[in-house]
Design brief:
Two copies of one chain form a homodimer. The first copy, chain A, is an alpha/beta fold. Chain A contains 17 helices and 19 strands. In chain A, 33% of the residues lie in helices and 13% in strands. The first copy, chain A, has an eight-stranded parallel beta barrel, surrounded by four helices. In chain A, strands 8-7-17 form a three-stranded antiparallel sheet. In chain A, strand 11 (313-317) and strand 12 form a beta hairpin. The longest helix of chain A has 17 residues, at 366-382. The radius of gyration of chain A is 27 Å and the shape is globular. Chains A, B: Residues 1-30 form the signal peptide. Chains A, B: This is FMN-dependent oxidoreductase, nitrilotriacetate monooxygenase family. Chains A, B: Keywords: Flavoprotein, FMN, Monooxygenase, Oxidoreductase, Signal. Chains A, B: Residues 89-152 form the Solute-binding protein family domain.
């Protein structure tokens, strides 16, 4: 009848629901706590008030999958099967019996006769079929409410706190290994490595306020492949400075060495500062960078698939590449590594809609997340792709405490450490285009305005803002309005959005809530300590997510990153079609 | 007085040598076995005949280090210390006492008074000093007679027997891991991976008689770094199709991930067939390939050392590269990976003398080995390098049996499997430039001559011979002289030289003998089975080498590949000087 991964169905029939809720203890801070305080013997009738510790976002059983939502929706719907509260055994309910195919992918349910919906309509196979198809039609929104986590290895950025005594090396392999093993212990989908193609410079000097240097990404990921078994290995590789044949060989080998866990975060660049490292003519006109990236990915996929043809041969002639030959790495478990995209420009979003399978999103606030999902869904529809073929993972930081107050105090400490005095001055200098080392970071903003002709004072860092004059005016207004020092201003404007702050239980409730809203498919956790910053999250948050029933308890049948991410199998013809 | 790794010294003094040889049992097949067969009680006087199972190549104690040579040279020389035969304790001999510095690098010996040489000259510190300095002056020849082994991962070549039921995948990582762990269990210096840049083609088709395809070398080595601790990781990387900044980042990261075990076998190419895979203009004029390789290595070393300057910056403008910037990978344990060279042309040898630290030599026969060492020594001297700064490791195959006859029979089986019928025809077609599929491999050579205009019938394979017409004439003469079939001819002309065939004891004696001749510094074992072909050698040959006292019993203090190879520490100024 249907190939299904879940056998729950929302056909509301006339059978009375007997759900065996057991005893619910109400949570002290939850909304809806009653003022009745009855302690006598059990009575029939009356009102049973149940407290939930998370918002019941959606009563549609096709969408809601966490226990809170199910506790509500099960009052008004029935299911094909039930579970014996004593033995845990799955027992007949709307279905009298069922058959499972040998390969466990087809479930045939034989429905009970004489059942009617509340309006008297007879219960048939059609509404069951409609409900299952409705799940598929919902696309990305239909996944049954699980929280998915991934991990960003903290690197060269202004959120990592290098001054913390717990911070270690971000260069030694032991640190990467610890991080990867921790993320895998936490059953994360993947870990994510950035790349550092050139040391950042500030005022003509290598910028050394935090740390300097970074090992090559593919080499580190391959070593991590040998000491892990399930976690996905996502590396950032530039499509401007690499060449398709080289990178395709490396990524195919990584996919093979890891048994199908490779992913490529495609980034573009056109800056000559970085390009000077590479080779004559190694950088591009800005207008061409996404055109080259698209051509690069399409060619790489052609190489990865070349053994599907007769002899591994390929032939590619375009504005950017003029190559033909044979590809020496045999087909790999995923065929193509999972393609990630991270830039937020209009061209970046279009590129993602055409080529990517995961977006590392910068949209951390609720409204932004919703608008971003809508925008991406529209772009996907425009190129004929299903919504569930592109996952959205925003970055997120987590600050835990034993109490909410302790967590808030830790957050303030972390922000103070993230924005130290010299760092605040350097941050301001990036926008001002001037040497501001004579100013007190704890004093007011500089009396001079920005030197807009000197916008290259910092090189090798992503520039998110185009108009530094406007940024300077906005910051000055904010500082005057709130009476902020330089350091306080930088603390206010440089923070990473969407940090979850609280006790493990509070953070877990927020994760679950965010997941229920369906604007994201998972989160990339960005710790502020290297390499141990993930341990606390894996030790304290993951078990609570599991207790709540919204997080995997093993990798189970997942063997590839595509499995971890619940992505459709790689399909050449689709990818080619949309990239045309 | 001297910093020394050995305290043995060849000062022959007037003390009578009492060496406590113990009872020597003579080996049944050894030369020099006497015809006296005395079985009565011990007597004074007479002749003691001692049988050794290896040639006593050199009685110079500064050179000879194995037990056989020492057993002879100790009859005519004395040493600073002796060893108590009962307790094994090191006791005074020519030195009455000695002091060892706190860091165990300086040993000061206080010499006994009243000792004279056999000619009456008084024994003083001077001859001891001269002997120690003589060891240093001998360069590569002075190492004290240890056997060094390395391992070549069997790949796409005509010595691997893919038809053997024990042959596994040469693509799956598990095979590489097994091989690396076995080599490390055998305390090998390094393992060696080739590279496959394009699938070989024969008669216009991908050549698939054995296996097809190969994973990318650096990616595999990095994964191996994570599952091994001491073995060197040598990868072959082409200097024509790679770019210095890219490859330097990858190799520096491999050196870091492995804790200082990376090596780069520099190969060159100028064939357009391979180049077509890569990028526009990705191949070179043949005359420029070693010029580019030299420039590439010098630039890569400049990148690896760039942090020795103030800020990691570099600036390089040459015929081949025009780059400047900063290098993002911090300095690594070895600073530069160990540089290997493998080509045998005149330019290749010059390149090795100027830039390399290890040669993977093709010279396996005794005379060739000696001539090659002499040639390399001369080239080293011409550029002012010490002989011990460049190690020579020829490839070697080993065939073991419980008896010599069994080993010889196994060798014949292996050769039959290596040269199967279709393979023999394809081998002949490479030289003949013609389709010979109509000929019987077990019949005589083709009646037609070679088509010399069609020498490109095979592409993607190294061509060792320049004049195929001459080769064909030579082979035809050989076949007529010995009445050989096609297959017998190919078996005769395609074999790998220098295969050691015998019982483990016989093979060990040959290894030791070869090492004593000083024409090579070690051997790269090339098994014919993937990936398990090394196990037998590690299980049966290595323990016998250890028993003989000519093979390491642990990696001891070795932490880098340079340590394994006993190479001098990397020195920028030397390498720059000789590459000028």
């Amino acid at each position: 009848m249907q190939t299904a991964r879940s056998i729950t169905v929302t056909a509301a029939a006339s059978l009375t629901a007997v759900l065996g809720l057991g005893v619910l203890t109400s949570c002290g801070t939850a909304a809806g706590q009653g003022d009745d305080d009855y302690t006598g013997p059990p009575v029939n009738g009356g009102t049973l008030r149940v407290a939930f510790d998370a918002d019941i976002t959606c009563a549609d059983g096709r969408q809601a999958g966490n226990n809170t939502a199910l506790n509500v929706s099960r009052q008004i719907t029935d299911s094909l099967t039930d579970q014996d509260p004593e033995t845990g055994e799955i027992v007949p309910w709307l279905a009298e019996s069922w058959d499972v195919s040998d390969d466990s992918t087809t479930f045939t349910f034989h429905l009970r006769d004489g059942v009617t919906f509340t309006d008297g309509t007879p219960f048939t196979a059609q509404p069951v079929k409609d409900n299952f198809e409705g799940i598929v039609d919902l696309g990305a929104k239909s996944s049954l409410g699980s929280t998915y986590l991934a991990a960003h290895f903290p690197g060269v950025n202004n959120t990592t706190v290098w001054a913390d005594p717990d911070s270690g090396s971000h260069i030694e392999f032991a640190g990467f290994e610890h991080f990867a093993r921790t993320a895998e212990r936490g059953l994360f989908d993947f870990l994510f490595l950035a790349e550092g193609l050139r040391l950042r410079e500030h005022k003509g000097q290598v910028f050394d306020q935090d740390v300097v240097g970074r090992p090559e990404t593919a080499t580190v990921l391959s070593a991590l492949a040998a000491v892990t078994t399930h976690i996905g290995l996502t590396g950032t590789f530039n499509s401007t400075f690499n060449e398709p044949y080289d990178l395709a060989r490396t990524l195919a080998t990584l996919d093979r060495v890891s048994g199908g866990r490779a992913a490529w975060n495609v980034v573009t660049s056109h800056n000559a500062f970085t390009g000077a490292n590479f080779r004559r003519g190694g950088y591009l006109d800005g207008a061409d960078r996404y055109r080259r990236a698209a051509d690069f990915v399409s060619l790489a996929r052609t190489l990865w698939e070349s053994h599907r043809g007769s002899d591994g041969s390929f032939d590619w002639h375009s504005d950017f590449f003029d190559v033909h030959g044979t590809f020496p790495v045999p087909e790999t478990p995923q065929i193509s590594p999972v393609i990630f995209q991270a830039g937020d420009s209009d061209e970046g979003r279009d590129f993602a809609a055409r080529h990517a399978e995961v977006i590392f999103s910068a949209h951390t606030e609720a409204e932004d997340r919703k608008a971003f999902r809508t925008d991406i869904d529209q772009r996907l529809a425009a190129v004929g792709r299903r919504p569930d073929s592109l996952k959205i993972y925003p970055g997120i930081s987590v600050i835990l405490g034993d109490t909410e107050a302790e967590a808030q105090e830790r957050y303030r400490e972390v922000r103070r450490a993230q924005v130290h005095g010299p760092g605040a001055i350097a941050f301001l200098e990036q926008v001002w285009g001037r040497d501001l080392s004579g100013y007190d970071p704890d004093g007011p903003l500089p009396d001079v305005g920005p030197d807009l002709d000197n916008a290259d004072i910092t090189r090798g860092r992503v520039r998110h803002e185009k108009d530094y004059g406007a940024v300077a005016r906005r910051w000055r207004a904010l500082a005057e309005e709130k009476n902020l020092s330089i350091r306080e201003l930088v603390t206010e404007v440089s923070g990473r959005g969407g940090t979850l702050i609280g006790t493990p239980a509070q953070v877990v409730a927020k994760f679950d809530d965010l997941t229920q809203q369906r604007d994201v498919d998972g989160f990339i956790v960005v710790p502020h300590i290297t390499p141990g910053g993930l341990d606390e999250i894996v030790d304290r948050v993951v078990p609570e997510l599991q207790d709540r029933g919204v997080y995997r308890t093993s990798y189970a049948g997942s063997t590839t990153l595509r499995d971890n991410l619940d992505l459709p199998a790689y399909n050449h013809s689709t990818s080619q079609e949309v990239s045309a």
